[in-house]
Amino acid sequence: MPKRTYQPKKHYRKRVHGWRIRRRSAGGRRVLKNRQQKGRKRITPS
Length: 46
Fold this sequence. Notes:
59% of the residues lie in helices and 0% in strands. It is an all-alpha fold. The chain has one domain: Helix Hairpins, CATH 1.10.287. The longest helix is centred in the C-terminal third of the chain and has 13 residues, at 26-38. The radius of gyration is 13 Å and the shape is elongated. This is Large ribosomal subunit protein bL34. Keywords: Ribonucleoprotein, Ribosomal protein.
């Protein structure tokens, strides 16, 4: 039986999906804006 694909790591999570990474690119800023407008409790999963 193969192992599960989700092996969580805090460092990876922050580095890939974090606030600072999202702020860096235009696409990331768009994601933050859309999630904020939608009223998400958590804008980034970090």
